Hints:
Elements: H1 2-17, H2 19-35, H3 38-54, H4 57-90
Helix pairs in contact: 1-4
Amino acid sequence: xxxxxxxxxxxxxxxxxxxxxxxxxxxxxxxxxxxxxxxxxxxxxxxxxxxxxxxxxxxxxxxxxxxxxxxxxxxxxxxxxxxxxxxxxxx
Length: 91
């Protein structure tokens, strides 16, 4: 049960960290948009619109989810190995 709480904690920490850069980027974009011309900011939106229109945004999301799932599985496996080594040291 204790290991499950660790995994849930790690999972929620990863989820809480992921949206942070987006909100921070939006805050900085608002200040830079005022200083830059409309052509510079339009290209960023155009790229996102193109990804959505072509359906490639789902590929981007799938890659991000796959990488995060791989990291979570790696951390779980690493935690199990460390737990086994700790048990061996205790006995």
